[in-house]
Design goal:
- The strands form three sheets. The protein has a five-stranded parallel sheet with strand order 4-3-5-6-7, with helices on both faces.
- The protein contains eleven helices and nine strands.
Amino acid sequence: ELKPNVNTWLEGAWIETNSQGLRGNKEYSYSSDKIRIETYGDSITMGQGVNLSYIYPELLNSDKYEVLNFGVTGYNTEQEIITLKEKGLKYNPKIIIIGYFLNDMDKKVPYFDKTSNYAYYKYRFTEFLMQKSYFYTFMKRKWVNIVNKFGRADNWINEIKSSYANETIMKKEEMVLDELKQIGKENNLTIIFVNHPLLEEPFYEDYLFLKENQQIKEMIEERGFIYIDLLEDYKNVNIKNYINSVIDVHPNANGHKLIAYSINNELIKSDYFPNESAFKQEYPLNENFINVIRLN
């Protein structure tokens, strides 16, 4: 989980957490006059490399809705459900939004050290170099390209694909989703899954995980959850304009607004949001983004 009361520079953005271990400095009581939305997920939901005001949980805040961000880098689905049970339900949410990524069913490694007095990047010295040295960043990019040519990237791809072909792993994930379904029923929750694709080029027609993407969709929809597939939203844009960098393919501010628009549109269809209520503030967008993403 995130260390409470942190204020540090991490992967290109300031990361601040409140006393409850949630990103941002706002403190939350267990009750609220607003309708509560809670977001769960990994580094995408936490907002790696993006300043607080631009991440999608923040963009969904409005006069009527209050969004609590429980995203933690490295978390998998099981850890997110545990967090919901142990922490999230205390805040009386009405809507749960879970950001899903390809490796969520089988990853184990947390990102923040709960024993230290501050959040830290596993390779703190290399993080420092990435902040201060253009030469280091350039050489790291070259090194990534070299190791990918020799199969390291292929190994990661094969690991993902083997997880979805592994009956034991798939069954465990289905059990976790069944538990979430029961929690939702007992607490009268609307549960939305947002499927985040891997934002690397070539994209869409050459997307490496179309089969796995379909498996995710089927698992989620079979249990009656609302499903948002961002693969379609990204297919007509220049991916380079929606990621932090070529060596950090997490969504940047543009990517987060695309995510927020997609969620907002789903909430409009479900009569949770009045049209455009979540986007009163204006944020600069590139031309591709303006042409592709439109509110209903």
